[in-house]
Design goal:
Length: 259
């Protein structure tokens, strides 16, 4: 496989130390070097393919902190837009209208649910209200990153490496509501029975609640599976920089193979 050098754009590594560059070299499908165009052309060597990105921004190794933007950018055309719905009945009517023109057996997919739009409209003092009374999971932490562009900022890639996480087989599809079986404690139901596995590479992204000096969180870190960009684990720190809470996610397949 010949080396490839991407030129003509801006390259942001995102590690907080490397200055923006304008070229990047790929060797055997992996990022090999980042720097100036002339230096990268030399590193790529003779016979390397040159690709002009015409002013685009390149984020080597980190496509997005979560793939929703990519998904909805790709599938925008066939999606049913429910962003303006204000009730469950509104959503049902919008989908019913599309169903009338959709052949039997075909899926109907929608844009993000309106609750996300509502979260983004919350005033500052409600962004860090508990999702339910008595717990410490806040409205602005949906999907760990929540509404990243309106609450969280100062994003930094602070590490990468393996991690034990709930990457798959984390729903009991034969159980009611896919709830896990339980075990432990006097009741026998203190812990969920789940499965952890070694994810070979995770990206650790740190962020802060910019413009929210009253936020109980000083910063948080999210571990993203490098293979899927799905968030696996989140650790939140208090205003003094001490670990305050951890949240473990769990993913699974829509369908499992027999056995």
């Amino acid at each position: 496989m010949p080396n490839t050098v991407y030129v003509g754009g801006r390259v942001l590594v995102g590690d907080g130390a490397t200055t923006p560059a304008n070229a990047v070299v790929l060797r055997e499908g992996r990022v090999a070097a980042v720097g100036t165009r002339d230096a990268m052309v030399r590193i790529a060597g003779r016979g390397a393919e040159q690709v002009d990105v015409h002013g685009a921004t390149i984020l080597p190794g980190l496509v997005d902190t979560h793939p929703h933007l990519m998904h909805f950018g790709t599938f925008a055309e066939p999606l049913v837009d429910i962003a303006d719905a204000r009730s469950h009945d509104d959503i049902v009517e919008i989908i019913r209208a599309r169903a009338a023109d959709t052949p039997a057996g075909e899926w109907i997919m929608t844009t993000p649910r309106p609750t996300i739009k509502s979260v983004r409209a919350y005033p500052a003092d409600q962004r860090f209200e508990p999702q339910f009374p008595g717990n410490t999971f806040f409205v602005t932490e949906y999907h760990m990153a929540g509404d990243p562009l309106l609450t969280w900022g100062n994003f930094k890639l602070v590490g990468k490496g393996p991690l034990l996480a709930g990457a798959s087989h984390c729903a009991d599809l034969d159980q009611p509501n896919w709830m896990h079986k339980t075990c432990g404690g006097k009741s026998g139901a203190k812990y969920w029975r789940t499965r952890m596995e070694l994810v070979p590479e995770m990206y650790v992204v740190e962020m802060e609640p910019t413009s929210y000096p009253r936020a109980p969180i000083g910063k948080k870190r999210i571990w993203f599976d490098a293979r899927t960009l799905c968030p696996m684990t989140m650790i939140s720190y208090d205003r003094q920089g001490r670990i305050w809470k951890q949240w473990e996610g769990g993913s699974d397949y829509y369908e499992r193979k027999p056995g």
